[in-house]
Design brief:
It comes from Flavobacterium sedimenticola. With 306 residues, the chain is α/β, with parallel strands linked by helices. It contains eleven helices and eleven strands.
């Protein structure tokens, strides 16, 4: 029995070593970026990082600690704020929203700022932290799910920033990385198994996307309206533009307008054509189409927004 166990352990050790070599050589695993909790209570990325997103491409975190390329200048600036749709690690940095916008000749520089899982209220906190850059506009790419995720009374989520409407308290997100996870990250083969098979965390498909999970569920419009009213009181919204995805609930869009937000809704006759296969996130083509509409909106509205 002892000899069998020794042979089994040796076999497992050899398998792990071979697996580690294969995963590293063929870049099969997904590299995890390093982040920290800043003084403003927001989770932010350490600057100047790169990592593999499987064998297809690399993600990039620029010198400002943001996913994607940094703007050429901080003059005449527009921020591009969002959740995983804007962090966009599932596409190469060439396909990021801010990069496409910078190529469309609008005359602006575009500063990306996003975190996967960010709620609307977290995006507003991000916009507040970026006011020191004196942006002309702050674009928030949103869906009605981002508003639902913002309200503690609807459902508490410790992994994003939320507002408790009853008390006015902001509950900030807590970093999820611990010593055990950090140890797993260092072993590419173990992390490959952990992410893809044990918990299936590697799939950015419809089943793991909160926008799809919330689809068809009843929306508490009274709480969403309370959220918008409170947001208008505690944040500067004059230069905020809400960019609503095509599948956003129309009543939520209407409420945003009535509460003083500048906004517009993206339009398409075939939303699926914007999305990745088996995934509700936008593909490179989708980001291009979105950027075209945003650029056109900015050109039309540049004189009307303070």
């Amino acid at each position: 029995m002892k000899k069998f166990l020794q042979s089994l352990l040796l076999f497992c050790a050899i398998g792990i070593v071979i697996g580690e070599i294969i995963v590293r050589v063929f870049s099969l695993s997904i590299d995890v970026h390093q982040f920290y909790l800043d003084k403003d209570h927001l989770i932010k990325n350490y600057p100047n990082q790169m990592g593999h997103m499987g064998p297809t491409h690399q993600w990039v975190i620029n010198k400002y600690g943001e996913f994607g390329y940094e703007p050429q200048s901080l003059e005449n600036l527009i921020t591009v704020i969002g959740d995983s749709y804007i962090a966009n690690t599932m596409n190469p940095p060439e396909c990021h929203q801010a990069n496409y916008l910078s190529q469309l000749g609008t005359g602006y520089n575009f500063y990306p700022s996003a975190r996967a899982g960010a709620s609307f209220i977290e995006m507003m906190e991000k916009a507040k932290s970026l006011e020191s850059l004196h942006p002309k506009y702050q674009l928030l790419y949103v869906h009605h799910g981002d508003f639902i995720e913002s309200v503690t009374e609807i459902k508490r989520n410790p992994f994003t920033v939320q507002l408790t409407l009853k008390t006015g308290e902001i509950k900030y997100a807590k970093p999820t990385s611990g010593k055990v996870k950090e140890a797993i990250y260092n072993f590419k083969f173990i992390y490959f198994l952990y992410r893809n098979y044990l918990f299936k965390l590697g799939n950015n498909d419809d089943a793991t996307n909160n926008r799809v999970l919330l689809k068809g569920k009843k929306i508490d419009y009274n709480l969403i309206n309370e959220l918008l009213v409170e947001t208008g009181k505690r944040y500067r919204i004059q230069n905020i533009v809400l960019v609503f995805s095509p599948d956003t609930d129309p009543k939520v869009i209407d409420m945003a307008g009535k509460n003083g937000f500048h906004y517009f809704q993206l339009q398409t006759d075939d939303y699926k054509s914007w999305q990745m296969p088996k995934d509700s996130h936008w593909s490179c083509y989708g980001h291009q189409e979105v950027a075209k509409q945003v650029a056109q909106y900015l050109q039309q509205q540049s004189e009307s927004i303070p």
